Every structure is written in structure tokens, then in C-alpha cells.
Amino acid sequence: MLLEIQSLTKRYPGSDSARPVLRDLSLSLAAGETLALTGESGSGKSTLLHLVGALDRFDAGEIWLDGHALSALGDGARAALRRDVVALVFQQFNLIPSLTVAQNLSFHARLAGREDREWLDQLTERLGLGDFATRYPEQLSGGQQQRVAIGRALAMRPRLLLADEPTGNLDETTSDAVMALMLDLVAESGAALFLVTHSERIAALAGRRAHLSNGCIT
Amino acid sequence: MTRVALAALLSHWRRQPLQLLTLLIGLALATGLWSAVQAINAEARASYAQAAAQLGRSDHALLSAPSGWIARKDYVALRRAGWKLSPVLEGRARLGEIAATVVGVDFLSYPKPPEADAGAPEVTPERIFLAPGLLFAPPELAVQLAAQPDLPPVVATADLPPGVVMTEISLAQYLLDRAGQIDRLLVLDAQPINLRPLAELAPDLVLTPPERGTETARLTDSFHLNLTAFGLLSFAVGLFIVHGTIGLAFQQRRAMFRTMRALGISLRHLTWLLIAELGLLALVAGLLGLVLGYLVAAALLPDVAATLRGLYGAPVSGGLTLRPLWALSGLGIALIGAAIAGAQGVWRLHAMPLLASAEQRAWAGVAVRRARFQALAGLALLAAGGAAIWLFDGLVAGFALLAGLMLGAALLLPALLDLVLALIQRRTRAPVAQWIWADMRAQLPGLSLALMALLLALATNIGVGTMVSSFRLTFTGWLDQRLAAELYVTARTDEQGAALHRWLEQRVDAVLPVRSVDALIAGQYGEVVGMRAHETYRRNWPLIAAAPQVWERLDASGGVLVNEQLARRENLWPGAQVTIGTDWHPEVIGVYSDYGNPVGQIIVSLDTLLARFDGVPYRQFGVRIAPDRVPALVTEIRAQFDLPASAVVDQAEIKARSLAVFEKTFLVTGALNVLTLGVAAFAILTSLLTLWGMRLPQLAPVWALGLTRARLARLELLRSVVLAGLTALAALPLGLLLAWVLLAVINVKAFGWRLPIYLFSGDWLLLLALALLAGALAAALPAHRLRRTPPADLLKVFANER
Amino acid sequence: MNVRWPVLVLCLLAGSAHAQGFAGLGTTADGFAIPQRGTALSFPRDHGPHPKYRIEWWYLTATLQGEDGRDYGIQWTLFRSSLAPRDGQGWETPQLWMAHAALTTPDAHYLDERLARGGIGQAGVSIAPFHAYIDNWEMQGHEGSGISDLTLSASGPEFAYDLTLKAAGPLVLHGDGGYSVKSAAGQASYYYSQPHYEGRGTITLPEGEIAVSGLGWLDREWSSQPLASDQTGWDWFSLSFDSGARMMGFRLRDDMSGYTSATWIAPDGNTSALPDGALKLTPLAASSVAGREVPTRWRVELPARDLDVTVSALNPQSWMDTSFPYWEGPVTVSGSHMGRGYLEMTGY
Questions:
Q1: Is 0.80 surpassed by the pTM of this model?
Q2: In a domain, C49, yes or no
Q3: Nearest residue on chain C to B132, alpha-carbon basis
Q4: Is the Cα dihedral B247, B248, B250, B254 positive or negative?
Q5: What's the rounded Cα separation, in Å, for the pair C74 and C63?
Q6: Cα–Cα 20 to 30 A to C120, which of A71, A131, B494, C106?
Q7: Which pLDDT score, from 0 to 100, does residue B698 have?
């Protein structure tokens, strides 16, 4: 199994400890699988995604990612996992403003040490970013920025792509186009996708679905 | 990976070249000012050390004759009694077209003969001792001398200070026209056992212990100490800029840091990358600063050299050599500066959660807490500085006070300005005015670092300016007082002294004998001077504390005057008793200032001195005479009594020289002042420019409400000028406090004398004007930009709102 | 003191290269006088300085026994060196003076050095009465008695001595009536001695004063060309035997067998000069002194006088660490003859 979540519990310090954000949650994802997680605002979807991406720590249970038990890993090893195994696409795009589109696209792949020119060219073309390669993120529209973020994530050929409301900042038309493109490319790259969204319409595009409410999968 | 990540970090600067420029220039300016001062100091110190070593002043005790010179036979008699001594003759001479200080030594006994530079003529005993002899001279002078006809061969040597020629004593006696004379005897190391004491063998000669030989250094140390303090303060000003820019660069890249961590760069790795980035920037800026410092120092050094050479007679080369230690210290200070400025950023990076959402919770209310913390830290620093001087003694405590005062005041400034602006705001009714003051308060946090820099720069200006001016006024005044007589004459012998006295009395307005002996004063060797309370002294003597009718009592009751150093060291103020020798305990009736003299001195009436001590030399006289008659009298005395040039000293000459010196000092401090102020103005400019990005959204609504862009631009200018003005007002008391610390605390701790403070309110007005100008200049560019902003840009502010 | 300065002083004493003379001529190239065979020495005149000669010395050593039963030795040496073959008054004189004084005990060696200018009264030698001095170091005779009655004093940072010396025998002229050849090439000096002093007085050590008595030996020598250019140093012995006889012997070392010379002084003061090769010197043991190996035990043979003795240093560390460093110290003599003496070695 690429991802195995067992009896996961997460509380936020200072908040009501009797009501954890995530409670005894278990879930798994195989390589190449696509999963859409839906839920209300504040249901803990993003928190779960952050935990899987080794961006935050949990209180009980365990996450197995590509054979590593995340609770046992230090900061360096967690960073290495994010660099080499997982890729993230955020709602706010999180591009590096001082790098050009082309530099942003290849950034993660170069960090991971597996820059594949051909694959990058292919991605650039498919994402329709060819004309913007030398522009800076602030000169792009929201949809274009998110396409760069998706390209950056896939360029390093992650085993697992984590996407947190990837189209949350986009209008409906743009959103659909971007989503379709992302699913296509994920399928082509052979990565697994863990998609968090509040939109049922988008969730419907995924191979598998799960719903989160009150900190539990239903 | 490191390369990719570092490139991403550095890409920020490519997109923000102005910020990069600010950072580099700020750090370079800070380093430059610091290194300029250091270079000047290092150069001057190296010159003294060299001079002191060459002239045998630092390591050896000296024997000298109060009468002016020692006869050769007296030297030989002391040698024959077993004392290992080395004779030195020194004087000014014209060698062809060139005036130089000629130092004659006995090359057989002289402890540190100069070594010839490579390429100089061969030095053999025959060439040194036999006619025509050799002249040793520093390289530049050697070239000049070699071009003069009829001089002995010249040997270049790096061991001699500028303007000094060293040669065999027989040749020196000829060049100086002083056959048979010796100025001083160095007391060499490893004296044999069973010697008769010098005091018995040569009661007429004065033994100066090695440390007293560095009188020059004592005085010039004061100058250097103050320059160093100036250098540190300038550096602090620069540091505020760097702190501001680095802080901003960290702030602006928070999102980038977070993204980079999300993409798999560990916190530790990122930290090292940032440290490497800072180090790289500091290195570049440090090198720039070194170049800048070198240029500033090279431009100022001739003046400093002239300053030190003029009054103190300390020879300083006008040329600047790049000393590795100096360069290293400059780079070091740049790195340390960047480290101090960057430490906070790195610390915040570590405290920063990986997830933005968590941050919002953690940092709520942090700005308010920070402002309060800063003000409290300022108060704590002020208190710590005060406590240091209260609890501890010594120079370090003085500097602690200085540091606490300056930093504490700087940290308090934002809170103070906020308070003042709030008060003004409360009294304002007009809506636009209310907005202006509220807006100014809102802008304070962003501008506070630059304003702190301005505060420090202005306070340093006022403090150092006041100090230098006070120093000049006091010192020249003191020279006037101490050198009250128009002419000073020294006879060769007591008999000649008596004859000279009789001869002078028939020709001049008054003859004031100067007679003194060395004696134990409160357990340490010092000087007891006998004085006849002539009207000249009554009118002029610089008393800083006195019992009533001090001059009458000096003659009548056997009371004594003590110099300030002694008074402070032994706590001898009017009414106290001082022990002279072992069994004489006269009452102190007055204390006088005696700048630059490291030893204790006591003045008694001449009759008392003669009654108490045997064999008091009778050779030195002050002469009161109409100034226009001085030159004629000098010629006549020399002809009549066959006295060497150095035995007849014209007071006007000394004064003219010392006044010229202070003009030079002013030039140097003035130049440093302008530079420091420039740095502070630059800080304001950069702060305003970095705030510019946030400015439009704030101004757009006001513009929409009907204020024209031109008016807004004027208000921008006004805002900057008002803040600069308020800061200048705050800087005035701080600067005066700084001057007080320098003059009354640090100087006393370091040298034992306190300088009175004189206030120069005219200078303050000028400085206030300069501060306002700096504020206006700094805001000129942003204001101009605002005036030219197309309305479309202002409209965008509304369009962008989500 | 810097490094080059001693080198200068060394030049002064050893005679710099360009000042080398030519044997057989009356003067060196730069006008200094050269010793001539057959010149009769005359006293007291020749006790005084000879400024026309480049170098000259008054060299007194004494082997002493203290009231504490220990052996001591003292050295008092005054060197004169001319930069030009003339005298002069004041600082301008070309006459320079250097002196060494030492006090040797079995376990310590104290020394001091003085340098002085001639012409100003700081150092010099006069003959009526005899008076040699530099600073407060003095060798003082009495009016009319030449050098047969001397008081001698010197002091350094750690020692002092004060002796009276009476000559119990005549002056001794070395070589051919005082003309002493120093090399096969003919370099020579004027050389005479007063080897017959009996002395007493006090020495002052860091521990205190000690009364001493013993034998003294004064060497007088002047020349303008002390060494041939291939000579590297010398070993010089002055030995006083219990029999009352004395011997002066030296060897100037070179790449070959060296050049030796000796004077045998019978108890009655009669002398015989022994030619090159008569004296045999063999080092028996060396000591490590001041970073070099110096022979401090010697076999000394003079077959013509049935002499075969071992000469041992009282203190092997008697190194004269002066501007011109060398080894000089008291020695004891055993073998065919018993006695005491002084040994000087240069060029090690």
C-alpha cells in the first residue's frame, strides 16, 4: 500500500481537547489510485492532507507513507519525503514569486534531483504555459498560476500528489478545465492522487471517494 | 539541491534590486565609517609606536637635564660610575633645502639602531663612525635628502618615523651646532650590581620612568578614544539600516520559506542556506565598505596627521598603508553586523510554523507586544548603563554607560514619538489633519528603525561636536593661562640663571622664575613647583576649586595648590592635607587643571620651596614683555648668553600651532559628521521606499475622498519632515548627555581630568535644519512618484479588492 | 638587540674583508701599521695603546681558590679596535673599545660586555701610571711600577670582582722577542705576557662575597692582520704548573694541520719559543655548549719538554655569549705535570 492511515488522532493545542479535529481515522490508498475527500468547511480535510504530506504532526495512530512510519521521522527525513515522494498543490498556488514560470516549473524536480527535460517540455505544452515561460507568477492569472503549480508538482514524478482545493480560487469554467487536465496528467504520470475538495462536482471526477465529518470517515 | 535552493533564495534580490542595494550600501557605509576611523587610528598608533621605539621612549627610563642639555663629561662620568646609558641628541635642522628632526645617537650603545632597507648603501662601522658619516632616514625623506648637495650618504630605513633623520651623535652635534651637548640619556637594561644611585651621582638630572616617556601617547589617546567612540556610533547607525533591510527581506520571503519547506527543504538546511546568503552579502558589502573606508581615511588622514603632529609632536605619516589586521577587522565587523541584524530573522524563521494557518493563531497581537517589549528593553538598557557606572569603576563601565544610553534611547524613541503624535492628534479637530496624524502614527512601526538611526546620528553629531568644541575651547584657554608669559628662557647653569635673571629684570616688564624639584607626593613621584604669586598668575591660573583668598594664602600660610589629576586620584580638595616627602603635610588651598600631564604636581610659594628643598635649580624663567618686543629680545638673549635655540621659546608660536591643530580636528570630525548624517538620511529614504508598496492602498481612499495627488505628495513630504524634526528634538538632550558622558565620565576614567562642557546652540540649529533637510530629501523621491502616479493605479486598489 | 648589529661589531674586531693586509709590506692597504720582525719592544711605552694598529688587547685571566675551598676563574679583557690608523679626540675618534668580563665557578658562568667610544674618556689605556679602563671596569697600576702591581675590578648584572695582583716574575716576550708569527704565510702580531701574577681579593656572586687568592696571567697583543683568510679559529692555552714552570701554546686551525706555536717559561722566567709542530693538541671529549660541540678536555703534549697532560675545563659551559661569541674558562691540568690555567677557543 502506498498510503496507510491507522487510527489517526489530531488535536490542536489550546482547542477543546475532548473534541479532536481527527478522531481514530483510518484510510488507505494504493499506487496509481485517485481518491477525493469531501467534507464541510472545518471538518479537518486540510488537516488530514497536511498530516499525510508530513507538514504537521499528529497525536495518536500512525501514517505509513511509501513504507515509512511518519511518527518516527525527524524534520530532515520528513523534508526528504516531501522532496522525493510527495508533491503538493495548494489552494493559494504557493509559487515562488522571484522565479520565472519555467524556473518554478522545474524547481521541485531539480530539488529532488530528477529533472526530466522531455517530461517538462511535455508538461509545459500540455498545461499551455509555453508562451509564459519567462514571466513571473504575479504576471499570470489565477488559472495560469495553478497550472504552473500542478506542473511543478508533477514534474518531479511524485508517487503521491496531494491537492488541497486546487481550484478553490478559480472560476467554474477555468476550474473544470484545470481539473480535467490535472487528472489526465496524473493518470499519465502514474501517480496516486489524494484530492481534498468541498465540491461534489469535482469529487465525482475521482476514482474513489470518501467523506469526512466530525473527524471521522463516513 | 543546495545550489537550486540557494539560487531561489537569491532570486529574491534580483526581483528587488533596490532592497539589495539598500542592504549592501547600508552595510558598506557602516563598515566604511567604522574602518575609516579604525584605519586612521591604526595608522596613527603605528606611527607613534614606531616613533616611540625608535626614539627609545617607550622601553627605557630617561635622564634629562632641567637646564636643557647634558654635558658630554657628565655622561662619561656616569658611564665611568658603571651606569649603562646611551646618549641621544635631538633637534630640528635644515639639511640642504629640507627641515628635519635630527636624532643623534651613539651607535655602539643605542639599543635599537635602524636597519637599512634593501638596496640602501652598505652600512659598515667605518661608514657610520668616520667622516662624512651616514644619515638614516625614512624612505620618502631619504629620496629628498639624496637630492640635496653636500650631505653625507643617505640610508633609507623603514624603522624611522616620517621627518626623522638618525645619525651618529658626532655628526648630529655638527648638524645641530651643539658640540658637546646631549639631550637625554637612555637608561639601558641589565645594569651591573653595586651601583651608586643616580640621584647621588647626578642630582641635577631628572629621571623619567619609562611609562612617563609616553606623555604624547596619553594626550593623543584621548583623541583616539573619542574617534573610536565615534566609529562605534557610526557603525550602530549603519547597523540600524541593515537590521531594517534584512528584517524586511525575511518578512517578504516568509511565504517563500514556507513553500520551500513544503517542497522538501528541511528547516536546518534552509537556516544554513540563509546564513550562507547573509555571509555572502556581508562579505560583498564588507569589501565595498573597506574600499569606502580606505577612501575616506585616505582623504582625511593628511588632516589627522597634521593634527597629531602639530600639537602633540607625534609624527604620523600622511600616507595610508593597508594593514591586514585593519582589513580583517573591517570584514569582521561587517559579518558581525550582518549576524546581529540577521539573528532575529533566523530566530523568527525557526519560530515560524510550517503552516500559515497556525501562524495566524500564534502571532496574533504580536505587534503590540513587540512595541511594548521594545520600550521596556530601552528602559532596561538605560537602567543597566546607569547601574554600570554606579556599581563599577573604570573605562569599561564608562563605555557600558555610553552603550546603554544610546541603545536604550534609540529603543525608546518609537514609543516616545507615538506618545507625542497621539497627544497632537487628540488636540486636532480638522479631519484632514486628524487623518495626517493618525496616518503618521500608523506609519511609525515601519519607519522606526530609520528614525532610530537618525536619532543616533544626530545625537552623535551633537555629542561629538560638543566634545570637540569643548576640548578646543578648554585646551586653548588653558594654554593661554599656563603660557601666560610671552617668552620662556632656560639657562645652562644656576650661575648663568642668576645672571640671566639680573639681566632680564632691567629690560622686561616682569621676570617669573620657574623653579621645581621632583619629590614624593602622597607616596608617588611628582613635581613640586615654586611660584611667586605674580599678578600674571593670579589673573590667569586655571583654578577649578579654590579656598577664599587663595593667592594670599599661598604666600602667607604655606598652603599648596594641587593639579586636577592628583586631586582626583588622592581625593585632595581644598581643606585636605597632602603629604610631600615624608614629614611635610601642608593644606590644599586650590586645585588647577593641568591637561595632558600624567603625573601629580604641586604648587607652593617660591619661598616655601626654597626653604624646604636644597639645590633647587635656578634656570627657567617666564618673561613678561610687550609682544612686539619679543623677536628683538630673543635675538639679544641668544647673543648675550650663548643659548641654543631650544632654550628660548616664544609662546605665540606654540599657541598658533595648537589653534591650527584644532581647525584640522574640526575638519575631520565635521567630515565624519556629515557622512553619518548622510547614512541616516539614506535609512529614511530606504524605509520610505520599502513602505511605498503598502502606501497606495492607504492613500487611494483619501484620494477618492477628494485630496489631490499633489496635496498628498506634499503631505508625504511633511510627514517625513515632521518625524525627522521630532527625532532631532529628541536627539538634542541625548547628544548633550553623550557629550557629558564623553567629557565627564570617560575622559576622567581614562585620563584623570574632566573637561568642562561648553554649549554651542548655533550648531544645534544648524543640525536641526540638516535633520529637516534629510527628512525632506528622503521623502522627495516617494512624493514625486506619488504626484506622478496615474489615477488608474489608484483605482486598481479598489478593483483588486476581493 | 637586532640580528645585524653583532655582525657589525664582529667586523670591527675581526677586520673586515677589504681591510686585509699584505705580509711583508709596512702597512695594510688602508694605512694600518704591520708588525715587523726585529722591532724591540719598549716598556712602559708598549703597555699603552698602539692606535696605528687595527686591533689590540689587554687580556687578563686568573685561576682562583676561594676561602670556601672551591675553584673559580675570572677574565678581564679590553679590546681596542681602530677604524682608521690614527687617534683623535671627541666622538670623532676612530678608536672603538670593547670589553668582556667573566666570573666562572664550577657550576656557573657569569659575564658582561661593554662597548665604548674612544676620545671622550669613557674607555682607554694610559701608561703613567698604567691605567686601562672602560666604564667602571678598571685595571690600575701604580706610578713607576709599570704593570707589576695592579688592582683589577669589574661588575655585571649578577657578579663583581675586585682583586690586587703582584707580579712575582719578569715579562715574557713570545716568538722572536715579541714578534709572534701566526701563520705559515707570515701573519704576525706583537705579543708579550706577564704570566707571574699572584693575586687576592673578593668575588661577588648572587650568593654573596667570597675571599679568593690565586694566579693571574696578562696577555698583551696587537696587530693589524690577526688571521690568515683560511684560518677558521684558534685553541689557546695558558698553563701554570705546580713546578713553577709555565707554558703558553696555541694552534690556529685551518683546513690542514693548522699552525702551532708555544712558549715554555721556566720557573726563573727564562723562555724558549717552540716552532710550528712542536705542540700537539688532541681533543679528548667535547661538550654541548650553546648549541654546538666544543672540546672541553684536551691532551696537550710538548715532547721537547716531556710534557703530556690532560687539560679539563672547570666548567664546560664557560661560553662567552657576547657580540663575538667564544669559549673561555679556567682549566685544571693533570698527567706528567699538575697545575691550572685558562683555555680559549674560537671558531666553534
A1: no
A2: no
A3: C92
A4: positive
A5: 7
A6: B494
A7: 75
Report yes or no: C17 at the B interface, CB cutoff 8 Å: no
> Which residues on chain B are in Cβ contact (under 8 Å) with C9?
125
Per-residue pLDDT tens for A29-62? 998 899 999 988 778 888 898 899 888 889 899 9
**Cα separation, B701 vs B707, whole angstroms:** 9
Same domain as B350, residue B201: no
Candidates C223, C197, C196; CA nearest to C35 is C223
- Residue among C4, C84, C135 whose CB faces B115 most closely: C4
Q: Shortest Cα distance from C6 to chain B (angstroms)?
A: 10
Q: Is residue B568 part of a domain?
A: yes
For residue B190, the chain C residues in CB contact (below 8 A) are: 112, 156-157
Q: Is the ipTM of this complex over 0.90?
A: yes
Helix (H, G, I), strand (E, B) or coil at B168: strand
The verdict on C108 touching B (C-beta cutoff 8 Å) is: no
* Residues whose CB is less than 8 angstroms from the CB of residue B645 and which lie 6 or more positions away in sequence, other chains included: B91, B638
CATH label of the domain that carries residue C249: 2.40.370.10
Residue B162: inside a domain: yes
Residue C9 lies inside a defined structural domain of this protein: no
Per-residue confidence at B37, pLDDT binned at 50, 70, 90?
A: confident
DSSP state of C225: -
The residue-averaged pLDDT of B274-298 equals 87
Please indicate whether, in this complex, the C-beta atoms of A98 and B256 are within 8 angstroms of each other.
yes
Q: Residue B115 and residue C157: Cβ atoms within 8 Å?
A: no
Contacts of B796 in chain A (CB under 8 A): none
Does a structural domain hold residue B31?
no
> Would you call B388 helix, strand, or coil by DSSP?
helix
Give yes or no: residues B681 and B789 share one domain: yes
Same domain, B200 and B291: no
Residue ending a domain, among B185, B210, B235, is B210
For residues A90 and A104, give the distance between their C-alpha atoms in angstroms, rounded to a whole number: 14
Q: Show Cβ contacts of residue B215 under 8 Å, excluding neighbours closer than 6 positions.
A: B596, B597, B598
A and C in touch (3+ CB pairs within 8 angstroms): no
CB contact under 8 A, B82 and C155: yes
Q: Tell me which of B210, B228, B260 is where a domain ends.
A: B210
Q: Output the average pLDDT for chain B.
A: 79
Residue C40 lies in a domain: no
Give me the number of domains chain B comprises: 3
Under 8 Å CB pairs connecting chains A and B tally to: 78
**Residue B439 sits in the same domain as residue B496:** no
Same-domain status, B497 and B372: no
Q: Say how far apart CA B736 and CA B669 lie, in whole Å.
A: 17
Per-residue confidence of chain C (348 residues) as pLDDT tens digits? 222 333 344 444 444 333 333 333 345 667 889 899 999 999 999 999 999 999 999 999 999 999 999 999 999 999 999 988 988 888 889 999 999 999 999 999 999 999 998 999 999 999 989 999 999 999 999 988 899 999 999 999 999 999 999 999 999 999 999 999 888 777 889 999 999 999 999 999 999 999 999 999 999 999 987 566 677 888 999 999 999 999 999 998 887 778 899 999 999 989 999 999 999 999 999 999 988 999 999 999 999 999 999 999 999 999 999 888 899 999 999 999 999 999 999 888
What does the pLDDT look like over B477-532, one tens digit per residue?
Answer: 766 666 677 888 878 778 888 888 899 888 888 888 878 887 778 777 778 888 87
Q: Are both B598 and B707 inside the same structural domain?
A: no
Cβ contact A76–B264 (<8 Å):
no
Q: What residues contact residue C208 under an 8 Å CB cut-off, 6+ apart?
A: none
Q: Searching chain B, which residue's CA lies closest to the CA of residue A53? A: B262
Q: Could you give the number of structural domains in chain C?
A: 1
Q: What's the Cα-to-Cα distance from B356 to each of B224, B259, B287, B360, B375, rounded to whole Å?
A: 52, 10, 38, 7, 29
DSSP for B639-699 reads HHH---GGGEEEHHHHHHHHHHHHHHHHHHHHHHHHHHHHHHHHHHHHHHHHHHHHHHHHH
Residue numbers of the domain that contains B121: 59-210
Q: Best mutation site among C9, C113, C120 for testing chain B: the one with the most B CBs within 10 Å?
A: C120
A96: nearest CB among B259, B266, B355:
B259
Q: Is residue C36 part of a domain?
A: no
C308 touching chain B per CB within 8 A: no
